[in-house]
Amino acid sequence: GQCAAVCPTGAITIKRDSHDVWEAIHNPKKRVVVQIAPAVRVAIGEAYGYEPGENTIGKLVASLRKLGIDAIFDTSVGADLTIMEESEELLEALEEEDRKYPLFTSCCPGWIRFVETQYPHLMKYVSTSKSPMEMFGAVVKEYYRKQDKKEGKETVSVAIMPCTAKKFEASREEFKRKGAPDVDYVLTSEEVITMLQEIGIRFDRLEPEAYDMPFSIFSGAGVIFGATGGVTEAAVRRVVEDKSPKALKEIEFIGARGMDGVKICELPFGERQIRIGIVSGLGNADNLLQKIESGEEHFDFVEVMACPGGCVAGAGQPFARSTEKRMRAEGLYKNDKAMQIKRSEENPLVETLYNDLLKNREHELLHVHYAPET
Ligand code: SF4
Q1: Which fold would CATH assign to domain 92-129+220-343?
Q2: Could you report the predicted ipTM of this complex, rounded to two decimals?
Q3: Origin, by domain of life (predicted)?
């Protein structure tokens, strides 16, 4: 049955979704499609004796296939889409003169909840781009719609996340289209570990396997989303005009990396400088907002992650002290290094999606407008 626990980051009741996912797996009329968040790959292996930061995504994919999942994809594809949309918003914000507030990132539901309840007047400065999970959830539901009809099936969209707040995000009314959520169930890394244990899958003994087609191409920019500063670095890679390898290397050193709870980066942009604030932990976010409100600080872009260190340290991950968090983040940057595609706009799948499935539907599928509190 379903049991409930209480979210450590707020008054959110946590639903355990594994029971429902098991049922969907065993129902031949259901197509179970999974997306895996970047931060999961560098932490889940710890339950099997791997070092924090070691990328065990291939083993996780192999395990999920054994579990009976029909298609396995990477949330980093959604992150590439998020960067495409959010950078457009950033470029527009940079054009506005005398703008007091920055464009705030929108991918962390813990942060969204915090603004809604503590600073509701700032909601209009939060990016309308959906989180990578929700963007990819919408793509998955649209992609299988026709095929489901033909085969008499129903697609069940599952997200494996480092995060308990993602369950709350998935269940929000704003993310339902035609009455159904784009992400039906969210499993945390810990829940997946338990599910694998339940049927005795030996994660460590499996040969690594690859993702399914067609959503198996993503950029390094999408992967680094899982660490604090990653969204910023991905967005900067997109907005700077110089696309040379040298420029890419320079972006590495703007100060977006590392586990500090507050980071400030400045970089030249055309005739001017852009100022970016990166915070993780809601206490740090609160302090920064107060400084912005008082006029003591000014930023063009602010990235906020509710968990100190970012998603690598999410409440759904195996327990982490600061060393593990740092090693996991380093694991994501190492993963990025090893990838051929570094920038979201260079991902050929992104272009295909914009020309096809997303065409004239970007607003519906990729953006969200949070309803005001009633
Ligand atoms: Fe979830 Fe934490 Fe990541 Fe926010 S920072 S999306 S709460 S894991």
Answers
A1: Fe-only Hydrogenase (Larger Subunit); Chain L, domain 3 (3.40.950)
A2: 0.99
A3: Bacteria
